[in-house]
Specification:
Length: 452
């Protein structure tokens, strides 16, 4: 049982260290909305979302007031639309995306995720319709987020889908070029996507989940930073213990909020995702944690080791605080959402290649990275393939959320606004990979995947 006293002990974390509950995300199954008629399906979807999430935002606001803990976002994730809408007779799921957007606006949530397809082993008709619909869907909606899973440690990497997604990302950038190609900020390509992730843009409600569920994402890089400042210069054992103890406290706050939200909404509690998700605010940065650890800038030699320490001990502390830690749970390294990462890029300390190395040990992958608008679709597919390979071989979730900003080049700044932040356009390796990407087919799963 968690007491209010435990939350009160974290008041300083909230007021001075940017501790927040980043999101309460309600997962909603749309499996019972299936119909062959698009209009009927859309009405079923709208009715179920608005009925299920009617009190979500108000409950979040009530909990903020009661416990004094900021809850930054209230979100919804739904069954991947390529599955839920698989029976619909249509050649476009754009109208479905618009219905999702309308439902999200009606209940007042910030984002709705699940305009998604799982194609790690191949595409169904519904998968292909969804993927082809992504550029227009993200251009004509405000709150819809999209994801495509192109690989897994069990299935290998679907290189046909990887090739296709390079083209889809370019199309999405073109469709939203009047807004610095922001459509791509709502699109992520995964390997080993998880079914209970509460964070956008990759959230969807997996087919193995309950009818409805509440998942909570907690974030506290500022809290970790302050704690490490107290042990500056001490040995690695002390460093690790400090991260674990702090992650435990942060997770307990999320546990209380999750349990209360579940109780008040009458929806089962799913998981706590303890992901150190930064914001553009100074003092709420993963890169600044690295500096406290002893690195001059993120990207300096030792950065990957520092990130491995951070990620591992956040997980260790979290699992001691809650029996149901899930989602992604670790350290995110999105460039545009982290003041320190932006500074490191501007100073030349952090490159795309170093970020790729860091993704071997971080929570996800290449996240919120602005690249030149002239980048070819084959190069983007190559970047996706590299990240998927890291995820496949290391049996971890990896992802790519890159934004080819049409009309901008290396060094120029892009402003996305809100939690999406701002970013310098980063250089991309100029050498061609088209011959590799265009081979087609599937990269087989690694030998260690055969564990039965």
């Amino acid at each position: 049982m968690i007491s209010r006293g435990e939350v009160q002990e974290t008041n300083q974390m909230i007021s001075e260290m940017n501790l927040d509950v980043r999101t309460i995300t309600m997962g909603i199954s749309l499996m019972d909305c299936a119909h062959t008629d698009l209009r009927v399906f859309n009405q079923n979807v709208y009715d179920k979302i608005t009925r299920s999430a009617e009190k979500l935002v108000k409950t979040g606001e009530d909990l903020e007031r009661q416990f004094g803990v900021p809850i930054v976002n209230k979100r919804i994730s739904v069954t991947p639309i390529s599955i839920a809408a698989g029976a619909v007779h249509t050649d476009s799921y754009v109208p479905v995306a618009q219905i999702l957007d309308n439902a999200a606006k009606e209940v007042g949530v910030n984002f709705i995720g699940g305009f998604s397809a799982l194609v790690q082993k191949g595409c169904t008709k519904g998968d292909r319709i969804l993927i082809d619909s992504i550029p227009e869907a993200l251009a004509v909606t405000e709150r819809v987020c999209s994801s495509v899973n192109v690989g897994s440690s069990r299935s290998g990497i679907n290189m046909d889908a990887v090739k296709l997604m390079g083209d889809i990302i370019i199309q999405t950038a073109e469709r939203t070029k009047d807004r610095d190609s922001i459509g791509c900020a709502k699109l992520v390509v995964f390997c080993n996507a998880v079914e209970d992730n509460p964070f956008m843009a990759g959230a969807f409600h997996g087919v193995g989940e309950r009818e409805l569920v509440i998942n909570v994402g907690v974030s506290g890089p500022g809290v970790i930073k302050r704690a490490l400042e107290e042990v500056k210069g001490q040995d690695f054992e002390t460093l690790c213990e400090t991260i674990k103890r702090t992650a435990f406290k942060v997770t307990r706050v999320g546990q209380l909020v999750a349990q209360e939200a579940s109780k008040r909404l009458g929806v089962p509690f799913g998981i706590i995702d303890l992901s150190l998700a930064p914001t553009p605010l100074i003092g709420d940065s993963i890169a600044e944690i690295f500096q406290v650890m002893g690195l001059e800038e993120a990207g300096a030699p030792g950065t990957t080791a520092a990130l491995a320490i951070l990620n591992d001990n956040v997980k260790k502390g979290g699992v001691m605080a809650s029996s149901y830690v899930g989602g992604l749970s670790g350290a995110f390294i999105p460039v545009s959402e982290d003041h320190g990462m932006i500074q490191a890029v501007q100073r030349g300390a952090l490159t795309l290649e170093k970020l790729e190395a860091m993704t071997c040990v971080c929570s996800v992958g290449l996240d919120m990275i602005a690249i030149p608008g002239s980048t070819s679709k084959e190069t983007i597919s190559g970047i996706i393939a590299d990240e998927a390979a890291i995820g496949m071989v290391n049996n971890k979730t990896t992802a790519v959320r890159v934004i080819p900003v049409i009309g901008k080049d290396v060094g120029e700044m892009v402003e996305f606004g809100g939690l999406l932040g701002y970013a310098p356009v980063m250089a991309v390796n100029p050498f061609n990979c088209a011959g590799f990407v265009n081979r087609g087919g599937r990269i087989p799963a690694p030998i260690h995947s055969f564990k039965n």
